[in-house]
Known about the structure:
Layout: E1 4-8, E2 12-13, H1 20-38, E3 42-50, H2 54-62, H3 67-84, E4 91-94, H4 98-113, E5 117-127, E6 132-134, E7 152-161, H5 167-176, E8 181-182, H6 184-193, E9 201-202, E10 204-206, E11 214-216, E12 219-224, H7 227-230, H8 233-236, H9 244-249, E13 253-258, H10 262-276, E14 283-287, E15 290-292, E16 295-296, H11 307-314, H12 316-326, E17 333-334, H13 337-367, H14 380-400, H15 404-425, H16 427-430, H17 437-458, H18 463-472, H19 477-480, H20 511-518, H21 521-540, H22 546-550, E18 554-564, E19 572-577, E20 581-586, H23 594-597, E21 601-605, E22 611-613, E23 616-618, E24 621-622, E25 624-627, E26 630-633, E27 645-646
Parallel strand pairs: 1-3, 1-13, 2-3, 3-4, 8-14, 13-14, 15-17
Antiparallel strand pairs: 5-6, 5-7, 7-9, 10-12, 11-12, 15-16, 18-19, 18-21, 18-27, 19-20, 21-24, 22-23, 25-26
Helix pairs in contact: 2-3, 11-12, 12-13, 13-15, 13-17, 14-15, 14-17, 15-17, 17-18
Amino acid sequence: xxxxxxxxxxxxxxxxxxxxxxxxxxxxxxxxxxxxxxxxxxxxxxxxxxxxxxxxxxxxxxxxxxxxxxxxxxxxxxxxxxxxxxxxxxxxxxxxxxxxxxxxxxxxxxxxxxxxxxxxxxxxxxxxxxxxxxxxxxxxxxxxxxxxxxxxxxxxxxxxxxxxxxxxxxxxxxxxxxxxxxxxxxxxxxxxxxxxxxxxxxxxxxxxxxxxxxxxxxxxxxxxxxxxxxxxxxxxxxxxxxxxxxxxxxxxxxxxxxxxxxxxxxxxxxxxxxxxxxxxxxxxxxxxxxxxxxxxxxxxxxxxxxxxxxxxxxxxxxxxxxxxxxxxxxxxxxxxxxxxxxxxxxxxxxxxxxxxxxxxxxxxxxxxxxxxxxxxxxxxxxxxxxxxxxxxxxxxxxxxxxxxxxxxxxxxxxxxxxxxxxxxxxxxxxxxxxxxxxxxxxxxxxxxxxxxxxxxxxxxxxxxxxxxxxxxxxxxxxxxxxxxxxxxxxxxxxxxxxxxxxxxxxxxxxxxxxxxxxxxxxxxxxxxxxxxxxxxxxxxxxxxxxxxxxxxxxxxxxxxxxxxxxxxxxxxxxxxxxxxxxxxxxxxxxxxxxxxxxxxxxxxxxxxxxxxxxxxxxxxxxxxxxxxxxxxxxxxxxxxxxxxxxx
Length: 647
Ligand code: MSP
């Protein structure tokens, strides 16, 4: 059983294109996948896209495309991004795949038949960003901590998955299996969540409001919503229930996620699995957020970095290395161009790149480019031998625990030692003394064998550079990138080593900075002036971009009741259906009587930040036209559905 490994990433929403945050999770999964292959395991690596739900429909509408057309385009962008980073999953799953849909329906029917699903009315605080109801305790200043918006109060009849009856089972399972959720802080977070009684999970949406989902097999008026659909990808990706992959890999399922989706993965998912009658996954590995200047990188905050841009600037291997090294798994990290450049120049160009080219050059100078036999003599090079041998065990332990950042740090400690051994032993001096020939052999052997081992140890993180190093050493990657390749002493002596161009060229200042630096000073001043003028024009200008407009969400709303605001004469308090019920406070009391408004289908701005107006929270804005005669409602034909988006 332990000679297999199944690794997954979250399936990413297609309402945004891939960014560095997605790239990190996928690189982590790829590194783990490669590590397990390297130590001889049979592995399966799954990633993909999550394509159902409101957010996707809205994003498609904004682009004037059908959901299917839209999801095909964005899903393809994810699929094509991963090879740029040398990531090659075994399967790329889409929640719109017919086989996935069939699996979700089969699971739903089973859980329904055994009485774990109930139909009832629910009112709660719904975050459209998270696509789930939040509980008060999760809010920060009344807002969703991830999307920084106040959730909307929603009341709807829906199907609920009765999670609470499995709560104690989950607590016991987590306590009995310390490795089930890690790092430990996230395990504790889940356990602390489980101290309060669990709410049941709303798993449906009425078809009247949303058709872009998997139809419930037991009620055609509803589709299943978000988590029940998405989480099951981890099973359908293995061809559950009968597939060979399912039998082979489900017992060793390892999920990588960021902390944003800890609750669905740490609570809903194991309970769903238990209800289906399956063993829960083996382990959940949770990482922190990539931030830019203290803000989480996300499409909604508009501060994203594209993986393609990273690869263009730094190359695939260096990008992977920086991602792995700059974030301690589990904690947040900040991205900056400069920190990546510093990391690449120091660790890759200087420490590793230099050590490699220095050693190969010396081997050519003092031993005609041929690896000498190992002499096993005392001296600083013997320390190096011992350090490298001990390193492999430590590195393995760290990699197994998803601590590649520490695994790399340990390796770099030994690489620095190797650089010191060269300075200490000064091979160019040894080469001048006949009686030191065997010592020089041993020094050169230890350097070359250390570099061979290094090439194997960096393979999970930097596969291309690893293979280049091995080829330069005259070795076959197929033979070295194996469990046997991880032991000291594989070079036999006699291998012919080729000189190759620098593995990691130094990166100079960014192109932008370099251009600026070349310009004469007054040209820079001119530029600043120009910028200032542009800014002024922008502030004063009355034009907006199409992007600005597309951020405004307009919807049809039916006014179901209207009354005077209790604390303000000029305001009316309207209850509208759009299609969920919400309150809108509007300054139209001087123009309309409350009764004249009821039953009208009007236009509202539906994504305005809720505001309190004289003690009543208003969730949106009613649109009216104004002329000399006064105000006129913007009405739409009465057969338009409440909530229909206006594009
Ligand atoms: N579709 C759901 C996941 C369903 S899994 C059954 C979803 N999609 S998402 O597109 O929002 O992806 C969230 C995941 O993307 C995070 O859990 C993480 O893996 C990655 N990240 C997105 N932004 C990130 C950061 N700023 N930092 C680190 N990881 C980030 O949630």
